């Protein structure tokens, strides 16, 4: 086996391990680590939960004395600062590792090349960039938040085969079957927040919870310029147990905001007059709250506004073999949309999944990768 095959094998394993932290580690990145001595894996580790140990010390502990003179593969640059845990660069040096292979530099300001530089200064061989595209793909939500200050927005919808998200009366329960809906609950369980438009909140009276609960409890957010969310709604009635944020506009009546607050909701009042601007303001606010993954569950007006603003990053589109018909029955993306087909967005990294008789089409909005300064 050529050395590069061995390196790819080590990094592939590190990336596989990293994914185990999904939903548990945010706002931290997912990181996996493998220690290899004479072509044999002697230690593995991953960052399992926010606040717990990083991947590198876990893998080094598993390797023990076998780490001396070994190669360490890690899916993201080792940290060099005292955060919730000690610096990983130090642990690597103390373990006597000879060579470090890093998939990607960490853009987080407290690291940003410092971990790699420290290891090189100490005389270790450090190679950066092996399977970097795969590492960027894995941690795209983290990278977006760290580099732009906004969370990764996932648009989710369910359509009939004729492309409707509801009938002309607004009824949408249910388009997909129970298994596809279970898949949505799994997705909800790793989100920091779930967003819906005010009409969806009114018409569907949703709970927006993950059932059964997942790795995290998402903040339930209603985009509601006039703070009209009824106190009798399921969201308001459960706000004391599970957090609800009403994202209102500057013209929302003060008395309504007060009543929602008294009922246990947080009312966030955006300052921009323009409702699309306010959506972006809200994204900045969620980023400040260290939110990494946010699910937007509709309806068509809200998703259309976000699409027109090129604001969402990923799509989970469920298609059911049902026919609804009707010019007035809504589709998932309202708003302006594209004028011509050459402006239509083709998703990348598309995955198709047959779930009972429904199909899940999952893919990402193509964007140029954020470049990091070479070190
Ligand atoms: N099948 C599915 O996947 C699915 C998912 C969700 C909903 N639905 C269905 O979709 C229907 C509701 O969808 P909808 O499109 O009528 O309404 P919507 O997107 O849920 O809510 C639209 C409302 O959100 C508020 N809003 C605030 N800022 C906005 C902005 N920047 N862009 C857009 N909206 C903004 C506006 O009300 P204010 O002016 O009061 O703020 C607007 O009228 C229901 O029938 C529901 O059952 C289906």
Please describe what this structure looks like.
The chain is of the alpha/beta class and 375 residues long. The protein has 2 domains: 3-138, 3-Layer(aba) Sandwich (Cytidine Deaminase, domain 2); 150-364, Dihydrofolate Reductase, subunit A (3-Layer(aba) Sandwich), CATH 3.40.430.10. It has 12 helices and 14 strands. Helix 10 (254-262) links the parallel strand 9 and strand 10 (266-269). The protein is elongated and about 70 Å long. The mean pLDDT is 95. It binds NADP nicotinamide-adenine-dinucleotide phosphate. The site of NADP nicotinamide-adenine-dinucleotide phosphate (NAP) has 31 residues, from strand 6, strand 7, helix 8, helix 11 and helix 12.
Short note summarizing the structure:
It is built from twelve helices and 14 strands. With 375 residues, the chain is an alpha/beta fold.
**How many domain units?**
2
By CATH, the topology of the largest domain is: Dihydrofolate Reductase, subunit A
| Total helical segments | 12
Structural class label: alpha/beta
Kindly list the characteristics that best describe this protein:
single chain, 375 residues, Cytidine Deaminase, domain 2, Dihydrofolate Reductase, subunit A, 14 strands, binds NADP nicotinamide-adenine-dinucleotide phosphate
């Amino acid at each position: 086996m050529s050395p590069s095959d061995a390196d790819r094998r080590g990094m592939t394993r590190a990336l596989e391990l990293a994914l185990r932290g999904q939903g548990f580690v945010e706002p931290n990145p997912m990181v996996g680590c493998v220690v290899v001595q004479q072509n044999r894996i002697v230690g593995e580790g991953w960052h399992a939960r926010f606040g717990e140990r990083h991947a590198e010390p876990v893998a080094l502990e598993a390797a023990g004395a076998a780490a001396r003179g070994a190669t360490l593969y890690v899916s993201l640059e080792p940290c060099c600062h005292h955060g919730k845990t000690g610096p990983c660069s130090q642990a690597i040096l103390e373990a006597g590792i000879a060579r470090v292979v890093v998939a990607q530099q960490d853009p987080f300001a407290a690291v940003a090349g410092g971990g790699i530089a420290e290891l090189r200064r100490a005389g270790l061989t450090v190679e950066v960039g092996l399977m970097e595209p795969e590492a960027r793909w894995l941690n795209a939500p983290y990278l977006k938040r760290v580099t732009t200050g906004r969370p990764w927005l996932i648009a989710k919808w369910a359509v009939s085969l004729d492309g409707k998200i509801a009938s002309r009366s607004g009824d949408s329960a249910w388009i997909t079957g129970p298994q596809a809906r279970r898949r949505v609950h799994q997705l909800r369980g790793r989100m920091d927040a779930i967003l819906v438009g005010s009409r969806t909140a009114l018409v569907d009276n949703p709970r927006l919870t993950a059932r059964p609960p997942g790795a995290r409890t998402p903040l339930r957010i209603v985009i509601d310029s006039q703070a009209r969310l009824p106190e009798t709604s399921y969201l308001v009635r459960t706000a004391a147990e599970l957090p609800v944020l009403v994202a209102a506009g500057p013209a929302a009546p003060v008395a309504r905001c007060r009543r929602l607050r008294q009922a246990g909701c947080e009312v966030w009042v955006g300052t921009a007059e323009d409702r699309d601007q306010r959506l972006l303001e809200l994204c900045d606010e969620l980023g400040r709250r260290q939110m990494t993954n946010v699910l937007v569950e509709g309806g068509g007006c809200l998703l259309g506004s976000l699409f027109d603003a090129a604001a969402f990053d990923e799509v989970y589109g469920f298609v059911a073999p049902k026919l609804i018909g009707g010019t007035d029955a809504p589709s998932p993306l309202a708003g302006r949309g594209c004028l011509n087909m050459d402006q239509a967005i083709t998703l990348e990294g598309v995955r198709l999944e047959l779930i009972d008789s429904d199909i899940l089409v999952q893919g990402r909005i193509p964007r140029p990768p954020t470049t990091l300064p070479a070190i």
